Amino acid sequence: MPEKNIADTIQSMLEKNKGFMTVKKVAVLLGTAGRRSLGIELTDSGREIRNKIEKSSEGRFIFRNKGRHVYILIPCEPYELVLSLLSETKAFDGRTSGGLPFTKSEFAAMLNELADEGKVKIILSDALLPRIFKVSTTVKNETPRDEPDLSGGNYTREIFREAFNSLDEGKIFVRIPDLRRKLNWPREVFDAFIKDLRNDGTIGVYMADESTMTDDEIHDCFTDENNFRMGTVIWNAR
Questions:
Q1: Per-residue pLDDT reduced to its tens digit, 171-191
Q2: What is the CA radius of gyration of the chain?
Q3: Which of 21, 50, 81, 126 has its CA 20 to 30 A from that of 91?
Q4: Which CATH architecture has domain 78-134?
Q5: How far apart are CA 224 and CA 233, in angstroms?
Q6: Which CATH class is domain 157-235?
Q7: From CA 116, how far away is CA 124, in angstroms rounded?
Q8: In the chain, which segments carry CATH 1.10.10.10?
Q9: Where does residue 33 rank: exposed (0-12), middle (13-18), buried (19+ CB within 10 A)?
Q10: What is the pLDDT of residue 139?
Q11: Whole-model pTM above 0.70?
């Protein structure tokens, strides 16, 4: 299996598995030829396998640690992975995280938010156990909040895009800490732009891999409405 096709092969595996799996499982599914091309041994630790996949894929995937497992994910919003687990007709037992690469508290926060937005329905069984379904409905309108004044000439989408392009250099992602420092805008203004561009689909923001960041870089990420720390951004509207 040529190395240049490894990233595409892994992406295909992830797409067939709801967008994520452990790196150990990826190593098994790659087969002997695939593992040989990356120098992977089945006895390697999750961290070792991650490092070898990451070196070959050039930042194409997101990695998360959960307990003793290392997960590999297709870049996407965390909620997309949760919704992919749910069905409109088959109940999901909400007492477990279903093997998702999130902690129980993270999983609970996302389910609560999705339920609040009307995207999932939670019904209690006779034994008072949660049964969760995905529903087809639009997100409810939020109560207007006070937002920073973005009308000034120094804060425009054009300037934001220019800063993004200066850091892009043909890569798939731009790191949010780098973009924040490049613009050097007030924190609330920068975060408001991230929210607006994300909400209208212009950009996608993805979870931070904190294991590769300094404390200052973690601080300069974007924290969304549910306290998930986002570390990278991609421009959707090319």
A1: 678 999 999 999 999 999 999
A2: 20
A3: 21
A4: Orthogonal Bundle (1.10)
A5: 13
A6: mainly alpha
A7: 16
A8: 78-134
A9: exposed
A10: 37
A11: no
